[in-house]
Design a protein that fits this description.
The protein has about 450 residues and is an alpha+beta fold. It is built from eleven helices and 14 strands. The strands form three sheets. The protein has a six-stranded mixed sheet, with helices on one face. The chain has a five-stranded antiparallel sheet with strand order 2-1-5-4-3. The chain has a three-stranded antiparallel sheet with strand order 6-8-13. Strand 3 and strand 4 form a beta hairpin. Helix 1 packs antiparallel against helix 3, helix 7 packs parallel to helix 11 and helix 9 packs antiparallel against helix 11.
Length: about 450
């Protein structure tokens, strides 16, 4: 087709020239050919100029009109341009979808060229680092010395974890990854939770090591003494008694750790049964009397027979922890009161003492592992620092909570709150909400007043 279109008009011109040569003269045929060739050259030049003008436009526009072979050529160029435009539109749509998806990522992504200038970033990176324009050095936006040193001398070593002014209290890891053209991809990731977990793990290891160090040192020292020197029978028994006491301290710590691990790794009590609260409290109170050795007054105020659906082993452990703590942290001559009440459709078992009390700033952390208000006093009383953490987890597993109220010099009140669904045959009292809470005092109930916390 293109050959036909290209040669049709020259063929017609030559035919006319031959006719002129035969009918008129050779000179007339020559003039005709000269005029036709000049016109044809001018026409082709105009078409080439229009095509050149179209190709030089800053953006694609409509193709110029053509005739003959130019019409075929422009048609094919038009099809090619349309195909390119469709391909470009598809790529633009895919790129827009990709950018939209990347902008939804919580991690900041910043593309940096080989000169450390910002080429592109997603919304998260723009918000975290305040990036507002491309082509500027990345350290204009991220000025922390740790990152600048990492950027200049990274070799893609360990990524720094820094705080950003745009997110107070949060910590972010800034990690560089190489890209093909010599640039870098900077990924900014919030690692606050991971950093806190790492800190908790370090604190846990440090606390366990600290708690074990003292009994291990004592056991090792007395054992070495018994092996190296001759001692009399009274000293030997004293040394062995000390070794036994410290080994029992270590055993309690191990038992509490195993108990806490079991409570944290299971969703709820394995077995549940109907528990007579008064009978359980009276049994534990006898142990508390033995620990107190007559130094405290322990009073049980449970007139009826409340029954709770719970794990007997876990509930006994929670009550024992509270009553043992009350004895340990109440001076000789103090009073400990254990009482039960139905309130607002829930059951509450409260252990209240007239002990030394706890300052308000310590209350939110009392149920943390190994948290101690006074480390020397706690260790001297034989505590492991895990008791209240165990109580908290036991109550959480039973759908309840632990309420704590304390005032320095006045005593403390620890209340186990059971949901109504765990009360067997109880008649709620105070459901109308008329009963107002009163301050923590030897004869008070736990409320939500200042100096109290619920966990």
């Amino acid at each position: 087709m293109i050959w036909f279109q290209a040669l049709r008009w020259p063929g017609i011109a030559l035919a006319i020239a031959a006719a002129l040569n035969w009918l008129v003269s050779a000179q007339a045929a020559a003039w005709w050919l000269a005029a036709v060739l000049a016109g044809y050259a001018l026409w082709q030049t105009l078409r080439l100029a229009r095509l050149h003008h179209w190709a030089a436009l800053p953006r694609q526009r409509e193709l110029p009109m053509g005739a003959g072979a130019w019409d075929v050529l422009f048609e094919r160029i038009g099809r090619y341009v349309n195909l390119e435009n469709e391909t470009r539109s598809e790529l633009s749509a895919e790129l827009a979808q990709l950018h939209a998806a990347v902008d939804q990522l919580p991690d900041g992504l910043t593309l940096i060229d080989r000169l450390d200038h910002v080429e592109w970033c997603n919304n998260a990176a723009a918000e975290l680092h305040g990036i507002f324009a491309s082509g500027r050095p990345v350290h204009h936006f991220i000025r922390q010395p740790e990152f600048v040193d990492y950027l200049d001398n990274s070799g893609y070593r360990s990524a720094p974890v820094i705080a950003l002014p745009s997110r107070p209290g949060r910590f972010f890891e800034l990690r560089l990854h190489p890209v093909d053209d010599g640039g870098k991809l900077l990924i900014t990731r919030d690692v606050t939770d991971q950093a806190r977990l790492d800190a908790m793990r370090r604190d846990f290891v440090a606390n366990v090591s600290h708690e074990i160090r003292t009994p291990v040192t004592v056991i090792g020292g007395f054992a070495e003494t018994l092996l190296s020197i001759e001692v009399d029978e009274d000293s030997r028994r004293e040394y062995l008694s000390t070794i036994l006491k410290q080994s029992q301290t270590m055993q309690r710590l191990v038992d509490d750790l195993l108990t806490l691990s079991t409570l944290e790794n299971s969703g709820g009590p394995d077995t549940e049964e109907q528990i007579d609260i008064r009978a359980m409290v009276e049994a534990i109170a006898s142990e508390a009397h033995a620990l107190s050795q007559g130094g405290h007054t322990i009073e049980i105020r449970i007139d009826d027979k409340p029954t709770v659906l719970a794990s007997a082993i876990e509930l006994e452990s929670a009550i024992r922890n509270l009553m043992t703590n009350a004895v340990r942290y109440t001076p000789v001559g103090g009073r400990i009161v254990v009482q039960w009440r139905d309130r607002d459709g829930r059951g509450e078992l409260q252990v209240r003492d007239t002990g030394i009390g706890i300052a308000a700033e310590h209350l939110p952390r009392l149920t943390e592992r190994f948290y101690r208000v006074d480390r020397s006093r706690s260790r001297g009383s034989g505590g492991t620092g895990l008791g209240l953490a165990i109580v908290k987890h036991i109550m959480n597993r039973h759908g309840g909570d632990l309420a704590i109220e304390s005032h320095v010099g006045e005593g403390s009140a620890f209340t186990l709150r059971f949901p109504g669904r765990r009360l067997i045959g109880a008649t709620p009292s105070g459901a109308d909400g008329d009963e107002a809470p009163v301050p923590a005092h030897p004869d008070a109930d736990v409320g939500d007043s200042p100096g109290s916390i619920r966990t």
